[in-house]
Design brief:
By secondary structure, this protein is of the alpha/beta class. The chain has a single domain, classed as TIM Barrel (Alpha-Beta Barrel), CATH 3.20.20. Helices cover about 40% and strands about 15% of the residues. It has nine helices and ten strands. Helix 1 packs across helix 2, helix 2 runs parallel beside helix 3 and helix 8 packs parallel to helix 9. The protein is globular and about 40 Å long.
């Protein structure tokens, strides 16, 4: 099993230990996310949910205010700020935890960083105008995700000649763009983007070959929790995909994932404790 070459990732004022795999808890503050849309809209519900995930062993809370499910409609900058910022500010104040902001919007990145967020998680890999310059100025780490197309249309006809080569090529190009803009490699993480412009066959090929991305020498973040790929395999609706999601998280970690982004934190933490025990380490929680 691969480990990160770096002992940790500096996330603002906090150091994230990546010597063992860690769990990122999903906190969607949107009314239309594919799994839990609407469940945690509003600061109080969101903070309570985050507290539960932290108590269960999440090392990072990933706050998102724009749904990127297939067919999702875009939101305005102000609407995203209104959804995200009260939650980010409350989490920093109440838990002093590592907060990641799931956004592609430069204005949200800047506001979240100023509030104390420690990580930017961008499904568009800093390709929105201004995003690269903002991240370069912040000094925070950023996760670059691969997506073919845009959320509204990405699942209509995803097509690749070789998905592993194309995703790898995308990563190389975005890493080069980041370094050229002043974002050092030490601040980068990579996410292959399971379910973002990919069929089940594409997703399984990526999961099978995940270890190959470790050749780039950067931490890997994987998010497969409750996704359609799990539903297609187990033939169950989104609220009945726990076992499949945990199994996929374990497989991802065995193939080199350093961070797994999940909805079901306690179950995933327990599963990764077993993985860590087999590896001879304690899971850092």
């Amino acid at each position: 099993m691969s480990k990160s070459t770096a002992p940790g990732l500096r996330c603002g004022a906090k150091l994230l230990d990546l010597s063992s795999p860690v769990v990122m808890g999903v906190l969607n503050v949107t009314p239309d996310s594919f799994s839990d849309g609407g469940s945690f809209v509003g600061r109080d519900k969101a903070v309570a949910r985050a507290g539960d995930m932290l108590e269960s062993g999440a090392a990072i809370i990933d706050v998102g205010g724009e749904s990127t499910r297939p067919g999702a409609a875009p939101v305005s900058v102000q609407e995203e700020l209104d959804r995200v910022m009260p939650v980010v500010e409350a989490l920093i104040r109440e838990f002093q935890c590592i907060v990641s902001v799931d956004t592609s919007t430069p204005e949200v990145m800047l506001a979240a960083a100023n509030a104390g967020a420690g990580l930017i998680n961008d499904v568009r890999a800093l390709q929105r105008p201004g995003a690269l310059d903002v991240v370069a100025s912040l000094g925070l780490p950023v996760c670059l995700m691969h997506m073919q197309g845009q959320p509204g249309t990405m699942q209509q006809n995803p097509n690749y000649k070789s998905i592993e080569r194309e995703v790898m090529g995308f990563f190389v190009q975005r890493i080069d763009a980041c370094v050229s803009a002043g974002v050092s490699k030490e601040r980068l993480l990579l996410d292959p983007g399971f379910g973002f412009g990919k069929t089940l066959e594409h997703n399984m090929s990526l999961l099978s070959g995940l270890a190959g991305f470790s050749l780039l020498g950067l931490p890997l973040l994987v998010g497969v929790s409750r996704k359609t790929m799990i539903g297609e395999i187990v033939n169950k609706p989104v609220d009945q995909r726990l076992c499949g999601s945990v199994a996929a998280a374990v497989l991802a970690v065995e193939r080199g994932a350093n961070i797994v982004r999940v909805h079901d934190v306690p179950e995933t933490v327990d599963a990764l404790k077993v993985v860590a025990a087999m590896r001879g380490n304690d899971l850092v929680i």
